[in-house]
Amino acid sequence: MKILIADDSKAMRLVINHMLKQAGFRGHDIIEAADGNEAFDAIHRDDPDLVISDWNMPGRTGIEVLQEIRAAGIDTTFGFVTTEISPEMRVLAESAGSSFLIGKPFTPDDFQRALDDIIH
Fold this sequence. Notes:
There is one protein chain. The protein is of the alpha/beta class and 120 residues long. The chain has one domain (2-115): Response regulator (Rossmann fold, 3-Layer(aba) Sandwich). The chain is 43% helix and 20% strand. The chain has 5 helices and 5 strands, in the order E-H-E-H-E-H-E-H-E-H. The chain has a 5-stranded parallel beta sheet, with helices on both faces. Helix 2 (36-46) runs parallel beside helix 3. The relative contact order is 0.19.
């Protein structure tokens, strides 16, 4: 499975990759994007099976990336790992087609619960 991790923090991209491994999701092709514009381009170029995105990023926000790819008819599984989670964000994410929303700080169990039915 090809997984895109989009976050403007290199350290956070590494942490998410590590959490995936700790949650038992190993051996996948991991690609990274350092902002929303890179994520948008990578989705079109690399056709990932799963996108794990930060909400707040330069260029395009994660929700803007999700809304734009859905408007283009791209149905890649997409979810968020973000610091701020409000009820309004949950509603917006779900209505835009997000599969999950994981709050920081997080544990491998959070990834296991969110991704168990997604990653094979």
